[in-house]
Structures are given as structure tokens and as C-alpha cells.
Amino acid sequence: MEDLLIVTTGGTIDKVYFDAKSDYQVGEPQIGKILDDLGVAFRFHVIPLLRKDSLFINDDDRVLMRATIAAQNERCVLVTHGTDSMVETAKVLAEIKDKTIVLTGALNPARFEGSDAEFNIGCAVGAVQSLPPGVYIAMNGRIWDPEKVRKNVEANRFEAN
Predict the structure, then answer these.
(1) Which of 84, 94, 24 has its CA nearest to residue 58?
(2) Is 12 a known active-site residue?
(3) pLDDT number for residue 41
(4) Which residues are within 8 A (CB) of 77 and not within 5 positions of it... i.e. 6 or more apart?
(5) Is 84 assigned a ligand-binding role in the annotation?
(6) Among residues 8, 9, 12, 89, which one is catalytic?
(7) Which residues make Cβ contacts (< 8 Å) with residue 52, sequence separation at least 6?
(8) Number of domains observed in the structure of the chain
(9) Any binding-site annotation on 37?
(10) Quick check: 94 pLDDT over 90?
């Protein structure tokens, strides 16, 4: 695989909790450390673009993401993103042609034992290397078309819409 571009936007994957009342803030991106710890055999470049809960990502943020990704040379792009508005962002990024873009995140912070973060990142890395140009979501062990998936908040998973 050529170099992988990773754009981080925040979300649960990077959250840090401070107390029993679940006060949190979005911390430093975790994906670079995760990939380094796993000893991956490819080069990657991380752009820490945003540090937001995805509920607070707005249209201007999505325009910034699209412009940032479009301006980079890498054709394989992984975006870490909060799960609540991941589908909306994927639809905006679909306007970028000639790149394979995979969005992923976590339902539990990467810093927590038992988090789905590493699994989702691994799934996304495999997907971004093997799929044709387009935009995809990698969550819950599946690769989704953003036009055909939704987050089921009650079940806390992604499913076909």
C-alpha cells in the first residue's frame, strides 16, 4: 500500500473521561499510537484536523474535511470520526473522486480496555487497501455504503437502513 493518510476529527475513539459523572473531553488522537504499537508494515501520515464530539461537527467542519483530504496526494484515506454524525460526513466526502476513503470510530474510547477501536481501525485499514475509490464506513466488523447504513442508537451499532 502507498502511504496512508489519516485524518482525525475527534469522537468517542479519542475521548478521555475525568470522573464518575462521565465528564469528558476529546483528547489527543489515538490512532497513531495504536498503529505504532501494532507494528504495522506501512507508512502513515496523521492530520489531527478536529477534536470534536461528532454531535458538534457542522457543515463548515465537513467542508474543511473535504478540502483537506482533496488537497492531499495520498489516494488511501482513513478518517477517525464520532459515530453519531459519521454517515452525514461520509456523504459530503463522497464528492471527492479518485480516492478510497474509509471512516471509522469507536463506540467506546480507545483508552478503555475492551474498546472496539483497535478492531474497527484494523477493519478500516484492510478496507482502504482493497476497495475501489469511493467512501465507506467500517464499523462493527462490516464495511458499509454510507447511503445504506444508519447508527442504531438504542442497540449501539450500525445497521442497514
Answers:
(1) 84
(2) yes
(3) 95
(4) 4, 5, 6, 7, 69, 99, 100, 101, 102, 128
(5) yes
(6) 12
(7) 9, 10, 11, 26, 61, 82
(8) 1
(9) no
(10) yes
